Structure formats: structure tokens, C-alpha cells
Amino acid sequence: MHLTAGDDFCGIKNKTFVSGEVLTYNVFYSVAGLYVNAGSASFTVGMDNINNKSCYHVVGEGRSNSSYDWIFKVRDRYETYFDTLNMQPLKFIRNVDEGGYKKVENVTFNQQTNTAITSAGVFKVPNCVQDVLSSIYYARNIDFNTYKPEDKIPFSMFLDNEVYNLYIRYLGKETIKTKYGKFRAIKFKPLLVKGTIFDGGEKMTVWVSDDANHIPLRIESPIVVGTIKIDMMQYKNLRYPLSSLVSFR
Length: 249
What we know:
This protein is mainly beta. The chain has one domain: YmcC-like fold (Beta Barrel), CATH 2.40.360. It is 6% helix and 54% strand. It has 3 helices and 15 strands. The protein has helices at 5-8, 69-72, 134-139; strands at 22-30, 35-50, 53-64, 74-83, 89-98, 101-110, 115-118, 121-124, 152-159, 162-177, 181-190, 205-209, 216-222, 227-236, 245-248. The longest helix has 6 residues, at 134-139. It is globular. Residues 1-6 have low confidence and may be disordered. Pfam families: DUF3108. This is DUF3108 domain-containing protein.
């Protein structure tokens, strides 16, 4: 049993992605079993420099399609800067508008003092703490072959001026058919923090490509009203061939 975030979630090196990678997703929404294309999301990896530290700069953007804005308008932008050497976040910016709920958050992480600085003050954080976006790229570098189904891989996340002790529950491997095609995939459930769209708990399921890239292929989750499926529809500049693709749709 893996008990502390320090055991598993520290010291991971990036072996799965490169600067220039772009992943694009369609968001499908269902109330009564019928899925409609309700929005889109994209994740772009670049390079930057903070305090003489080389870092990855990832921008994640999500938006509802304008025809669905009247139901639940989403205009989200997340940015993370994390150290290329140890994958630890240096800076996190969140600017969200979700159904009228608006929030701007700006966090600076200090690895030397294990603190996170926000407009609300200075907060003690554990070693290897992640932010919402950096945790996705960190999780892509987990070696799932060292785990058995139902194993929990713990990590800590800083969000809204609080530290959350979370985990990923590994569920094994399976072949999945998405809107893009048929893939060999690694399946897991992240423990979520309750937010404006998603409930807390283990309700979200994620499938990532069972190849050296570990790109998220599908995310499925109940939301406040209904269910969403998020499928990868386009990719650019992957580090390795997408060898998990069995066939196109």
C-alpha cells in the first residue's frame, strides 16, 4: 500500500511530453443519454523562465459553444509554470467564468520554503505539491506498470488557498473507443475537489494512451446536471508515435 505523497509523487522526471505539444478536445454533454457537442478545450505546452529556472508553461483553455452558453456558459483559462527538472509548480494562474461564477487566482510557489503565496497570504505546503494543471502533466509521468488495479497513488494539491490530500486510483488497462478512434488505454479515477462543475469524490474516470505519451484520450464525469464526456480530437508535436491507436473511428 502506498501511503504518502512523498513516496510516489516526488522525484518524477518528465519522459512523456515536449514543448510544442498541443492537445485539443471536444466536450460532449448529456442530460438524458443523448450526447451533444457542447464545448471545446485545448492544452498547449511551451517553455519559459522564472527566477533563472527553466520551466514548462502550460495553458489550458475551455469554453462552451456559444449555442449552449444560455444553459451554462464556460470561459476558463488555466496556466501553470513548472520546473523542467523536478516537475514542481512555480506559478499558477486561474481565470474562470463558470455559469456566472467568476474567479481569478494567482499563486506563486516557493520550493525552498515550501510555501504558496496568494493575495490571501502565505500558506505552508507539503513537498511536491501540485496545482490543478501541473498535476495532469505530473500524473502523465507515473509508471502505471508498477501498480496493481485498485492501488491508490497519493498526491497533494494547492487550490483556493487550501492543501488537499488527493489520490489517483489505478483501474488497469482496457481498449476504449472514443470519437477519434479505438485505443489501448490506461484507466484511472482521480479523487476530485468539489467545484462549480464537478462534484468531489471518485466520480470522474480518465483514460490515457497506453504508450509512451500517456495523453488523456477520454474523461467522463457526472456534473451538476447531466454527464460530460471529453474526447481528444486533435494532437500536435507528441514526443513519441501514438502507438496505442488501434484504428480510426
